[in-house]
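We both want to read discrete structure tokens more fluently, so let's practise on a single case. Would you write everything just below, so we can both look at the same thing?
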Amino acid sequence: MKQLYKKWVAIWNGDSSLIDTIIAPNFIFHREGGQPDWHGPEETRKMLAASRVPFSELTFHTTIGPIGENNLVVGRNEGTGIYQGGIPGAAAEKGTKVEMTGIDILRVEDGKIVECWHNSNDFSFMMQLKAVQMLPSEQTKE
């Protein structure tokens, strides 16, 4: 399970050659916040490629885990990259270094990933891209 999770992180780091070896045909990637799920190896390939376009030097590494039990494996990952532009609503300058964190829970059957529940710190990430702002707290209002 740990080796499978390492391959999962490797595909996020751009090694799309591993997709067909670890992603089941019936794979479902569940995203948070009402975003549509994606399905199967081909959509995974397209979504991972698209997620890399706005960034150079995009790399991920596992900071906690992977931890496995039965047919589930989970890990917490951190990523860094250099923003190259192109995200709607983002006002950050090209060349802005960004950091992101996420937790993936993977369900495995017959040695392949059939389901992923992904949770990430999108608010912090969008703040770095200047796409959202933190609202002032009641304590800072006059």
The chain has a mean pLDDT of 90. The domain at 2-132 is CATH 3.10.450.50 (Nuclear Transport Factor 2; Chain: A,). The longest strand covers residues 55-69. Strands lie at 23-30, 38-39, 55-69, 72-83, 97-109, 112-120.
